[in-house]
Amino acid sequence: MKENPVSEVADRATNGPSELQARALEVLQNSLANPSPYVRLHAAESLILFGFTDTVLPIYERALERDGDIPGQRICIWRVLARAKPTAAGRAQHVDRLCAICLSPHSPDAASAAESLAKLKYRVDAAHRSQYEGAMERLPTAARPHGRWLLAMSGDRQDLERLADLLDNPDPNIRGVAAYALRHLREDLPPRIIKRIAAAAIAEASPSSRKYLVSAAFVTGSARENVSAFKSALLDYLRSGRNDEKYESATALGINGTAADLDTLVQLLHDADADVQVAASTAVLHILIRTGQSALPVARHAVA
Prior knowledge:
17 helices, mainly alpha
């Protein structure tokens, strides 16, 4: 995407309730022109979340024409359009494309398609459940959490437990992705799984997975005596962590942070990493809305 994003976001933001809101929205707007498809994806989804679908849609419609057949990029484009299209039929067209890739486990995009469907809260119907179960079992071992996450969206307690079982996997990357998935399912988790997340976060030693476990433990707010310790770890990541640690920590604070966290997040609006800027901007806007300092809407279907 080489287009310069339209100026509508910035124009509308300056009429909003705060200068900070305007700064955060400007970061998201500018990120639509970033060379990375993933930075653009994250910025686009946040803008849709906060009511700027009309800014995102034409950019991604042009991207579909140009890059809609490129592995990797097509998943990002379809996922945005599955949120942004104004009609149910238009959104379903792109969900169907994701489903087709998801059911092709030898596709290089199969795991990404499963993750995107899960983030879109796609529910596999009973008639096709066995088909999806088979496809998810054929995914590479490293992608197993994505398959279990998708099935848990439409399953029952047993499906959530199967996903949570991966918190004990010997591969730290699998543990991390499982925790990341459980964070997204936070509203549906029973107390037993919430306690498992907290225990796993306390025990985790691998840097590659710890950020996801601490983030999930913080947003699910399990053992209350540990919440402050989890938040302290997230703030440490924001101040001196790697880019992936900053991104995940900012996202977690966007979900459960308070106005007291704004100063730390604001410093990241000019971080050297563009994706960290997007996560921090999104978190700032979430906190402004939650604390009554912004009148921006939040779309119910969007997922942090």
